[in-house]
Structures are given as C-alpha cells and as structure tokens.
Amino acid sequence: MFSENQKTSLQDFLQIIQSKKEIDSVNIEPSVFTDIDFSGKRFIGCKFSHSHFFNCNFTGVTLRMSFLEFCEFENCVFENSDIQFCSFGASCFTSTTFQHSDILHTSFNGIKSDNTSFNDSDLYNSTIAQAKMSFTFFESCNLKKLTLYQNTHNTVSFKSSNVRDTLFLDTCKTF
Length: 175
Hints:
Blueprint: H1 10-19, E1 22-24, E2 32-34, E3 42-44, E4 52-54, E5 62-64, E6 72-74, E7 82-84, E8 92-94, E9 102-104, E10 112-117, E11 127-129, E12 132-137, E13 147-149, E14 152-157, E15 167-169, E16 173-174
Parallel strand pairs: 1-3, 2-4, 3-5, 4-6, 5-7, 6-8, 7-9, 8-10, 10-12, 11-13, 12-14, 13-15, 14-16
C-alpha cells in the first residue's frame, strides 16, 4: 500500500502513467487533472484523494483497493472499467459515466452526483449512503447486495435493474 508520508507530485505521476500500464502503491498529491487519458491503466493500492478530474478518460481502467475520496469528477468517462474494493467517499460526480462497468465492493458514501450514469453496470455488494443524487441512473444494473442508506435524490432511476437482495434503507427522500 501507499505511504501516507511520501506523496508523488503531479509532474512525477504524469511521467509514471506515460511509462507504465500498472501503477502500484502511489500516493498522489492533491492535484488537478485536465484532459488526461487514464484508459487501460491498472491502479493498485493508490491514493488520489482531494484531486480534481476534468474531462478525463478512465475507459477500461482497473482500480483495486484505491482511494478517490473528496475528489471532483466532471465530464469523466469510466466506461467498461473494473473497480473493486475502492472508496469514492464524499466525491462529486458531474456529467460522468460508469456505464458497462464492474464496480464491486466499493463505497460511494456521502457522494454528490448530477447527470451521472451507472447504466448496464454491476454494483454487487457496494454501498451508497448519505448521498445526494440528481439525475443519476442505475438502469439495467446488477444491484444485488447493494446497500442504499439515507440518500436524498431527484430523478434517480433503477429501471430494469436486478434489485433482488438490494437493501433500500431509509433511502427514498427526495429534494
């Protein structure tokens, strides 16, 4: 796992992603990423917390045991991604898509989402708690063992999703 005391600068990190397909145990300083192509990269045990991502491409990315907490994602694409055992706690998603992705055992606690799509994804055993979601779509998803707890929402759709064994705990508040 990454070292909390040793952080990688943005410039050093950009050189790493240019030269490697798999990035392991890197703690990135809070940074602003604009128009960066992360597609096809594998991040294992990395920490991106407090960073901002604008117009970034994460298509086909693999994320394992990584922390993307308190981040801001705007106009980002995570399509066909493989995300497991990660935390996006307290992050904000605007016009971002996770379509056709496997998002397993992942935490989205305290997120804010607007115009965000998880359509055709597998969110098995993930958690969305105390989130504020607006125009967020979970259509044709596998939501088995997904826990939704104390969320507020405006226009959220679970149309054609597998909600068997989904835990909807005090999650129907609208704003």
